[in-house]
Amino acid sequence: MIQAFILTIVLKLALISAVIFVSMKKTSLYFIPFLILLIASCSVSKDPQRSYIKKLQKGIIKDDTSYVYHLPYEEGKTHLLVQGYFSKFSHKNRAALDFKMKRGTKVTAAREGVVVRVKQDGDRGGWNKKYRPYGNVIVIQHSDGTRAGYWHLQHNGAFVKVGDTIKQGQVIALSGKTGYTLFPHLHFIVWRSDSNGWRQVATRFQTKEGVKFLRPMRRYSNKQP
User: Fold this and answer.
1) Distance of alpha carbon 135 from its chain centroid, rounded?
2) Into how many domains does the chain fold?
3) Taking the model in full, what pTM does it have?
4) 182-211 pLDDT per residue, tens
5) Is 40 helix (H, G, I), strand (E, B) or coil?
6) Cα separation of 24 and 171, whole Å?
7) CA-CA distance, 92 to 105, in Å (whole number)?
8) Residues 20 and 90 in one domain
């Protein structure tokens, strides 16, 4: 009974938060169920990377040597980061980032490289695993061997093809809501492959406020020095 009461309170708070966000025009109705599930979720990843990345985000550990990425949208634009590294909703085991974007928003390359994968024939999406195969994606390989993936892109929304050399900041696609996703957004992740398999990589970004490891539920503006 006590657990049910607590869950009811949590859900009510989530709904109130969602209404406030909508009234402030900082989100859409797609975001209400996401907030409910996010706040109600309690489990946390046990991946050792999570603790390390959290310390990077809070500035407890300093990193002044890793590559500085651009935000994956046009300069001068601002977007809300709805999920960050190892967030509780659907990133519990992922060092990935979700930027809330309307369908048709221009997606730009966060780093220069060569396109190694393009899928753009997916024409549907939703919060059901049956939609997972429909997720459109572009993967770009960088000079140091890392790769960046840009997911949930619009149907036939890619502006590049496999083998293309891409410049940092170049428009590569339009965002969408394809694949296994609750609302329109861009899912961005960087990883590195080695003899032990693939490993997720947390990345620093150049923002209007300087170079940062991004944190969820904050709005970030793309402004280059």
Assistant:
1) 14
2) 2
3) 0.79
4) 899 999 999 998 777 888 888 999 999 999
5) helix
6) 29
7) 26
8) no
